[in-house]
Design brief:
The chain is an alpha/beta fold. The chain has 15 helices and 8 strands. It is globular and about 65 Å long.
Length: 371
């Protein structure tokens, strides 16, 4: 299920609220062409709300950009109506018009432009913690890219986990790696091989996309057979640590380094330092990313409350779920490994970051900005 929230009312659309413009957009999705006056108002609203700046579109090109996005919206909706594609969220596309119009459609268009300009496979990194919507974003953007005649494929950093057997051996070497996820639990070479093969591939060539099944071995997960696809033109690699850079050893290893909570004990600090060191081996993989999009909660602590809410919903449905204390321990484990304040926040200003998407507590897009 998507972590983005559907629209409840066109009169309640947050900081970019303009119900008349939203009605024009929704009507266009249903096949109704906007009048000249409606287009003028939509264009004025788009310029006034500074939406064009996010996608680096000059104001003189606003009319053409809007027409192209509206046409893409119609094509996407027609595909849904014909059941040629399926929306990976509950409800209809109109329920999701805000992220669809403000993020999903323009991001797909930007990726399309970038790929066609380079005429080589383009790799887009998507960084986001739990509850930020990175998996939903990946799936929907791939669907939209197909409407632009792009062969897009999504892959998660989770698909690059070491096998179950390898992780058991790793745990014997380092008992602190009790869960999969921290640096060191992935097969970085496998990811490098996959992206290198794609970037150097010939048209029509088939390539293997690694896949991982989290349900195996009682939820500990294991690799499954790779998915063979025709050489993609665009790859979206998403994950909670995609693109994360290690801190300088001289900085994090200093005795007075200000570790944030819950990194409190000497053991916690050493675990954080070791995870930081292991990040160095991931840089070869990140070097194959052409750009990075960062999905960032207004407050990183939202992820704990989101996870608690999700687990409570599962338990209410009669499914197995973690207790509040277990959830806290689980989330704190990852904060101790790579604390968001130390490793995620700095990426909002990193040279390779193309876009930062701020998510509020209700899973709504609060802000879009360039680094």
């Amino acid at each position: 299920m998507s972590v983005f929230s559907p629209v409840k009312s066109l009169a309640d659309l947050g900081p970019l609220s303009n119900s008349e413009s939203w009605r024009t957009i929704v009507a266009c999705g249903y096949g109704q062409q906007p009048t000249v006056e409606q287009m003028q108002r939509l264009q004025a609203w788009t310029i006034e709300s500074r939406q064009l700046e996010i996608w680096q579109i000059p104001v003189p090109e606003a009319e053409l950009a809007l027409k192209c996005r509206l046409q893409l919206l119609q094509t996407f909706c027609q595909q849904l109506k014909a059941k040629a594609i399926r929306l990976p969220v509950l409800g209809t596309w109109a329920d999701w018009i805000v992220p669809l119009w403000l993020l999903w459609l323009p991001l797909a268009q930007q990726l399309d432009r970038s790929q066609r300009a380079s005429n080589t496979p383009f790799v887009q990194g998507l960084l986001g913690g739990q509850g930020t919507g990175k998996t939903t974003l990946t799936k929907i953007v791939c669907l939209i890219l197909a409407c632009l005649e792009q062969r897009a494929v999504g892959c998660s950093i989770d698909d690059l986990y070491l096998s179950y057997e390898q992780r058991q051996q790793l745990r014997q070497q380092d008992p602190r790696l009790v869960w999969r996820g921290p640096p060191g639990t992935h097969d970085v070479e496998l990811g490098v091989k996959m992206l290198t093969t794609i970037k150097q591939g010939a048209p029509g060539q088939s390539v293997a996309i690694p896949r991982f099944d989290k349900s195996l071995y009682g939820g500990q997960g294991d690799r499954m057979a790779a998915e063979w696809v025709q050489l993609p033109s665009i790859v979206l690699l998403e994950g909670w640590l995609v693109g994360v850079q290690p801190l300088p050893a001289s900085e994090i290893n200093s005795a007075d380094f200000p570790f944030p909570s819950p990194i409190l004990t000497a053991a916690d600090k050493q675990f954080s330092r070791d995870c930081n060191h292991r990040l160095e081996s991931y840089q070869q993989l990140w070097s194959l990313l052409d750009s990075l999009v960062v999905l960032q909660p207004e407050d990183y602590r939202y992820s704990l409350r989101w996870r608690q809410s999700a687990e409570l919903q599962m338990i209410a449905q009669g499914k197995m779920g973690l207790s509040v204390s277990q959830i806290t321990e689980f989330v704190n484990y990852f904060w101790k490994a790579l604390h968001p304040e130390l490793f995620i926040t700095p990426l909002a200003c990193h040279k390779n970051t193309r876009l930062v998407v701020t998510i509020d507590f209700d899973h709504q897009i609060n802000h879009l900005c360039l680094p």
